[in-house]
Design goal:
CATH architecture: 3-Layer(aba) Sandwich
Number of domains: 1
Radius of gyration: 17 Å
Largest sheet: 3 strands, parallel
Number of helices: 6
Structural class: alpha/beta
Order of helices and strands: HEHEHHEHEEH
CATH superfamily: Phosphoglycerate mutase-like
Helix content: 25-40%
CATH topology: Rossmann fold
Shape: globular
Number of strands: 5
Strand content: 5-15%
């Protein structure tokens, strides 16, 4: 699951910066996501260490009576543009323009393949420990997109503006043989997305 809407009045790209928690609407999104799988056999809930993912995991922990685990591998990628409003500030920051030189890597942060590798390793490990039940991993847009593109057999470089990974969306994987496949994509908080602000993704 991706985290819910973040309280971000200045519209900055928050990345790994501390202190960016969920907005009131973001908390509602997280509750809708947990409620959407109320009948599932959730054995574990694991979040990235950032505040917004831990807060998004809280309704799952409460509903399914499990402890929250934290896994560093689920974290947001590093990003050279952290702390700026991309639309407002980047045109006035020529010192940062060099980071746009190769979007296929990407040159502004952690390589796609690095994110892919750590995410798949985390998924494999938590799946193996699930003992037949389901696991909820709460992460961020780009890491989730890397997994979705991998299991779909797509190339990792992509246009960030065309990502299919809405706030509080749930991308479900199932192990079939020796590989994971995507079985569904859902947006339990769809009713809240129209007015949501989503400006902090890498």
């Amino acid at each position: 699951m991706r985290h819910g809407e973040v309280e971000n009045p200045d519209g900055v790209l928050y990345g790994r910066i501390e202190g960016f928690g969920l907005s009131e609407r973001g908390h509602r999104m997280a509750h809708l996501a947990a409620a959407s799988l109320a009948g599932s056999d959730i054995r574990a809930v694991v979040a990235s260490p950032l505040q917004r993912t831990r807060e998004s995991a809280a309704p799952w922990v409460e509903r399914f009576g499990v402890d929250l685990a934290v896994d560093e591998r689920l974290i947001e990628p590093t990003n050279a543009f952290e702390g700026i409003n991309m639309r407002r500030d980047l045109p006035r920051r020529p010192d940062l323009w060099r980071h746009l030189r190769n979007p296929r890597t990407p040159s502004w942060g952690e390589p796609f393949r690095s994110v892919q590798s750590r995410m798949l390793a985390a998924i494999e490990e938590h799946w193996a420990a699930a003992d037949g039940g389901d696991v909820v991993l709460v992460s961020h847009q780009m890491p989730i997109v890397m997994v979705a593109r991998t299991v779909a057999g797509l190339k990792l470089p992509h246009n960030p503006s065309r990502r299919r990974c809405a706030l509080s969306s749930i991308t479900t994987l199932e192990r079939r043989g020796d590989a994971f496949v995507e079985t569904s994509y859902a947006e339990p908080a769809a009713e809240l997305l129209r007015h949501a602000i989503d400006t902090g993704a890498v």
